[in-house]
Design brief:
The protein is an alpha/beta fold. The chain is elongated. Strands 19, 20, 21, 27, 28, 29, 30, 37 and 38 form a nine-stranded mixed beta sheet that branches. Strands 6-5-14-15-16-13-17 form a seven-stranded mixed beta sheet. A seven-stranded mixed beta sheet has the order 25-24-32-34-35-31-36.
């Protein structure tokens, strides 16, 4: 405890160290220790309740003695969580006689004073390192050797290190520290039971703490490190790109530095965590003792002794499920270090129990303790989550998660990492990086993807080890140490490649006997989903230590009546796995702006002003009977004129008057049609395009990396460095960054680019609509509405959401609908950052829940929508209210009302009457629906169902696939000349079995999203963005394979709330789940043999009619919520923009609900 108090900046007299180590009654000593600690904590409480590092004070220890570290321990640990409280504490605890020795507690070395002008605003140092343990001193040594200006802050930099360190000799030799050993042993021994032991041919050593600290201190002094004997109160990093951070010491002194490094061990005082810390614990009780004799050879150390013959029946029974082992380092025939160790447990095995087990072992071995020179109580948090990164504060050692999650080793890893961290810091400073960009570079260097994957594997192993009984633990270590030396030694030392890690996993599995192998497999199942998700993506370790994502723990809490779990089922602010209940917001309250510099106008004034300009009430949904027909809105959007876009006829050459003969005719000239035509023309085919001469009228937002990969970055009118999201009102006013660049497509630029490619490759153009396609052997005859006749070997239909000229699978896959109403407006000095797009703002302008009986809309729920923003310049911005996915189409007039109400609540003035509105946009995207059948006419783009059903994205996917489809069509037409085979090959590329499985997954997700109310949708996206970044980014880009999507589902289920898991299970058991599973099974059978009959209807060759006429189209997508249907809902009391419960749907609309299950909770909160 004295060590803990020292690290908290509390002065402790030298004599106080002996209180807990003197001979005498254990209970009395425990009482005195606790009293001492309580007095010190009380003294801290009387001040600012601040500890060494400016956060929570040292908590009362839940163990009875000083928290020193053992021979493998790395850091003094202060217990903070109830999960560390042992379940079993013996009443009678043995005592050992103490030697009359009071070890020196401070190094006899004089530290130079820091130059007075260091750390000022004008002369900031390069790095302030907080903490003078091995991590802090190691980093200070490396940084000063590189010429950095370094300041090390610690309450007592000369304090004696309380920790015993045991290391592998080869590791310390590689670090140049072989002269810092107390003693070496040429090998280590592992005793499994009385008949089995394993010799480890690897030298081991105990570190001489005084030599190591003295060596590091002297090097730091020689290299000009400045030392400050003080505790840190606070750290202020300023803005993200601020060049300096301000460190405030206790007493008020301020220091300024370009970077701050937290080396405070497991106290975790400066580095921030965005998730709860749930480690396992390695507990150990050890003594450095003078003994009469001992049975251990002096040339080898005892690494593990798992024998249990010494235990009494009571402790032998406990050892069955909580096994411990002996760790011993013999120095002489009469001096030895002995430690009883629990490798990892949750909660920790208590120190009194460990002490009893050690005593029973020593008595059985005939070891008589004369006296003890040092007594150690070790508790090491192992595994758990890593710090939030990147973040401005850098971290090293225990605070940065560098404890080996499967063994507890840390010292060598930390000293190695100091070199990596400092080299990265030096490079970043030389490159002129500062603030967040500097810290991001360093964090990514310290924790590479390979290291993150390795740590995930170690955490997975740790959780598995905690489930093994003593018998299976022996089996495990017998198999582990039977592996090749490079595997087990590399794993213990953090020096193993991913390839060797895979080799190790397989070798370990096959080394196990059959019975323990099965036990081992069963032990891994509760953590397998989280392991796979984190290991595959290699992003920040979010490995969950809760079996099955914590379901069992939550069930137990609910059974016991504990309501603490309620927040887990409610959404809240924060991405990265934190889900907290949102504070209710009154209807009259303002929505915070993304920045504070914009003056918010009076909300009520703006509401009335906009109501007068629009002629509607903003606070109340409009009656359906007063709404404009959505078909008028879609016609308005399609018929827009864009004066800046040149007519296609002025760029492309026309067809002949009659009888043009083509290789491929493309019907439609949106981005998909023009891209396909250009790709085909560039492959030497004669290509024509038939379509009305229409400009690009939709606003497209794309991920920058995708457009850059396509070579289209120069067609973006604006590039945003990141995108912002808000899940609810409790999120930061400035939003949460997703860490991915975004772009707004320049409609003119993209259209000009595609038209120029078409012109250069000889693509022809005719402005008309296709009326009829007659498919003959070897070619098709096409008749246009104006009478033009064209002959083409292949016809591709790229008509967007107009599906009249194609045939679709005769299944009942439902449509979802994404609708959005947007405006480009003049808004002088608007508050939206020009380098950020607003991707999703779910802060609501309308009340979304029943707040009382009077305002509760019984039997219906509000369809969610969010704000999407693309700033153009400081005075111009595109604002859009979007309904992501709904089972029925959200009326545009309702979205328009919501948008302007939201703007009024945000205090944003749109001068409608003054002409501030530059352009209106009505976006209407059918999602999902049946896939097209294999047929002679080849669909492409939205007509081929290439829209992402769960997000609405399509333009990037179409531009990507155009190159692949064109190559396939060109090969088919050139190589064999068979039109039918070319068409079939094209369809195999468009909708291969693999792509059908992926689309089935996305459609399943779309149908789930379409049935979620606002609280559930927020929870969905909090969970979604908490997944590894690669995973959710690839999901949005449609880049995950069908196997990776299944891993995605497992990871989502594990990380989701109880409510989300409940909804997923219900959805999987509903018709949507049956369709999803059937498609997966049928396509696998088709792809790998035996299932051709199952897909005959979808893949039969030339199944289409010989003649297709526009008037015969049966799959023309109707408006899902026409005025008539809206009025039917109005007569039934359904508010505009709301959905009825499933049981009421048929009574209102005359047909079954398009969503599969009634997923609304009942009054009791359960389904």
């Amino acid at each position: 405890m004295a060590a803990s108090l020292l690290r908290a900046g509390v002065p402790v007299r030298q004599a106080q160290f002996g209180v807990c180590n003197k001979n005498g009654d254990y209970a009395a000593k425990t009482t005195r220790c606790r009293s001492l600690l309580s007095q010190k904590v009380a003294s801290l409480s009387s001040t600012k309740r601040r500890s060494l590092f400016g956060q929570a004070i040292v908590q009362p220890l839940k163990q009875p003695s000083a928290m020193h570290s053992s021979a493998r321990a790395r850091t003094v640990s202060v217990l903070e969580k109830e999960t560390t409280v042992p379940e079993f504490i013996p009443k009678k605890v043995p005592t050992f006689p103490a030697c009359d020795i009071n070890p020196k507690r401070r190094l006899d070395i004089e530290l130079p004073e820091m130059p007075a002008d260091w750390g000022t605003v004008e002369n900031p140092v390069d790095v302030i390192i907080v903490g003078s343990g091995p991590a802090g001193l190691g980093a200070a040594d490396k940084a000063s050797a590189k010429g950095l200006k370094v300041v090390l802050v610690d309450p007592d930099p000369k304090a004696y290190w309380m920790n015993n360190y045991g290391v592998w000799v080869d590791e310390f030799e590689a670090l140049g520290l072989a002269d810092c050993f107390t003693k070496q042993w040429r090998k280590a021994n592992v005793m499994l039971d009385k008949d089995n032991d394993i010799q480890l041919d690897r030298a081991y050593a105990q570190v001489d703490r005084v030599k190591l600290k003295t060596k590091l201190l002297e090097r730091c002094m020689k290299q000009g490190v400045g030392f400050i004997s003080s505790a840190v109160d606070t750290v202020d990093h300023g803005s993200n790109q601020a060049a300096r951070s301000k460190v405030v010491l206790q007493g008020g002194r301020e220091m300024h530095a370009r970077s701050v490094l937290d080396a405070t061990g497991h106290a975790r005082r400066l580095v921030e965590f965005d998730e709860s810390f749930t480690p396992g614990y390695q507990g150990a009780y050890g003594i450095t003792a003078i003994v009469e004799s001992h049975p251990f050879p002096l040339d080898e150390m005892l690494f593990m002794d798992w024998r249990e013959d010494h235990l009494t029946p009571e402790y032998k029974k406990r050892n069955e499920t909580l096994p411990t082992f002996l760790y011993a380092m013999p120095f002489t025939e009469n001096l030895i270090f002995l430690e009883e160790t629990s490798l990892v447990a949750r909660p920790a095995v208590s120190f009194p129990e460990l002490k009893i087990r050690l005593q029973q072992r020593l008595e059985h071995y005939g070891i008589v303790v004369t006296c003890i020179k040092e007594e150690e109580f070790c508790l090491i948090p192992m595994g758990g989550v890593l710090p939030m990164f990147p973040q401005r504060t850098l971290g090293i050692g225990g605070t940065a998660g560098m404890v080996h999650p499967s063994t507890g080793f840390m010292l060598s890893k930390t000293l190695q990492s100091a070199d990596v961290l400092i080299n990265s810091l030096v490079a970043a400073l030389e490159e002129g990086k500062k603030g967040e960009s500097l810290s991001t570079k360093v964090w990514e260097t310290v924790w590479t993807k390979a290291d993150l994957r390795l740590r995930t594997f170690m955490c997975f192993g740790m959780e598995t080890l905690m489930k093994l009984n003593i018998e299976n633990t022996r089996y495990f270590f017998k198999a582990f140490f039977s592996m090749p030396y490079k595997l087990w030694s590399g794993f213990l030392s953090w020096r193993i490649t991913l390839f060797s890690l895979a080799e190790m996993g397989l070798t370990l599995f096959f080394n196990l006997d059959a019975k323990p192998r099965l036990t081992f497999m069963l032990s891994t199942l509760p953590y397998l989903g989280s392991f796979v998700a984190n290991f595959v993506m290699g992003n920040k370790n979010n490995f969950s230590s809760r079996p099955w994502g914590g379901i069992s723990d939550k069930v137990k809490r609910k059974i016991s009546g504990n309501k603490d779990d309620q927040d887990d089922d409610l959404t809240g602010g924060g991405i990265g796995g934190k889900v907290a209940k949102a504070k209710p917001r009154s209807v009259e309250g303002k929505i915070p702006l993304p920045v504070k510099s914009y003056k918010q106008e009076d909300t009520d004034f703006l509401t009335k002003k906009m109501e007068a300009a629009l002629g509607i009430e903003l606070d109340t949904p409009c009656p359906a009977s007063s709404l404009r027909d959505d078909r008028d809105w879609t016609r308005f959007q399609q018929q827009k004129k864009m004066a800046d876009q040149a007519p296609a006829a002025s760029v492309l050459k026309p067809f002949k008057a009659q009888g043009e003969s083509l290789d491929v005719l493309v019907v439609g000239m949106g981005p998909s049609g023009l891209a396909l035509a250009a790709e085909l023309g560039e492959r030497g085919l004669k290509v024509g395009v038939v379509s009305p001469d229409m400009p690009f009228v939709n606003t497209y937002g794309v991920w920058f990396d995708e457009f850059e990969e396509l070579g289209l970055a120069d067609t973006l009118s604006h590039v945003y460095e990141d995108v912002l999201v808000w899940m609810n009102e409790s999120d930061p006013a400035g939003g949460i960054d997703l860490g991915r660049k975004y772009g707004r497509v320049g409609r003119k630029e993209l259209r000009d680019h595609l038209l120029e490619r078409c012109r250069a490759s000889g693509v022809l153009y005719h402005a008309d609509m296709v009326e009829e396609v007659v498919n003959l052997e070897g070619h098709s005859n096409v008749t246009c509405r104006g009478g033009m006749k064209v002959e083409a070997r292949l016809v591709s239909i790229a008509t967007g959401h107009n599906r009249e000229m194609l045939e679709y699978a005769p299944d009942q896959t439902p449509f979802g609908w994404q609708t959005a109403y947007g405006v480009e407006v003049k808004m002088p000095a608007h508050p939206f950052p020009l380098d950020r797009a607003v991707f999703m703002d779910f802060r609501q302008s309308d009340p979304e829940e029943c707040v009382d009986d009077k305002n509760c809309l019984v039997g219906q729920w509000r369809v969610p929508s969010f704000l999407y923003v693309l700033p153009s310049d400081k005075d111009t911005v595109f604002l859009e209210e979007t309904c992501l996915a709904s089972s029925v189409q959200m009326p545009f007039d309702e979205l328009k009302r919501r948008l302007y109400l939201r703007l009024a609540r945000m205090g944003l003035d749109v001068d409608i009457e003054g002409g501030a509105v530059i352009e209106e946009e009505a976006s209407w995207i059918p999602l999902g629906g049946p896939l097209p059948r294999s047929q002679r006419n080849i669909a492409f783009g939205a007509a081929a169902c290439m829209v992402h059903p769960a997000s609405g994205y399509s333009v990037t996917n179409s531009l990507r696939q155009a190159k692949i489809l064109a190559a396939t069509m060109a090969v088919g037409l050139k190589d064999n000349g068979c039109v039918a085979e070319a068409a079939n090959s094209a369809w195999e590329v468009l909708w291969s079995p693999e792509k059908k499985r992926r689309m089935a997954f996305y459609q399943f997700g779309m149908q789930l999203i379409a049935g979620l109310k606002i609280s559930e949708l927020r929870s969905f996206f909090v969970t979604f963005y908490a997944l590894p970044r690669d995973m959710h980014q690839k999901f949005l880009s449609m880049d995950l394979t069908s196997l990776e999507l299944l891993m995605f589902a497992v990871a989502f289920f594990v990380n989701g709330t109880n409510r989300l898991r409940q909804l997923l299970v219900l959805h999987l058991a509903a018709p949507a789940g049956s369709r999803f599973l059937k498609i997966y099974l049928d396509t696998l059978l088709h792809q790998f043999g035996g299932g051709a009959d199952a897909l005959a209807a979808a893949t039969q060759e030339n199944a289409s009619k010989t003649m297709i006429r526009r008037s015969e189209g049966k799959m023309a997508t109707p408006s899902a919520m026409t005025v008539e249907k809206q009025q039917m809902g109005e007569r039934a009391g359904l508010s505009c923009g709301y959905m009825p419960e499933r049981k009421d749907f048929k009574d209102i609309f005359g047909k079954e609900a398009p969503f599969d299950v009634d997923m609304r909770p009942s009054e009791s909160g359960s389904t």
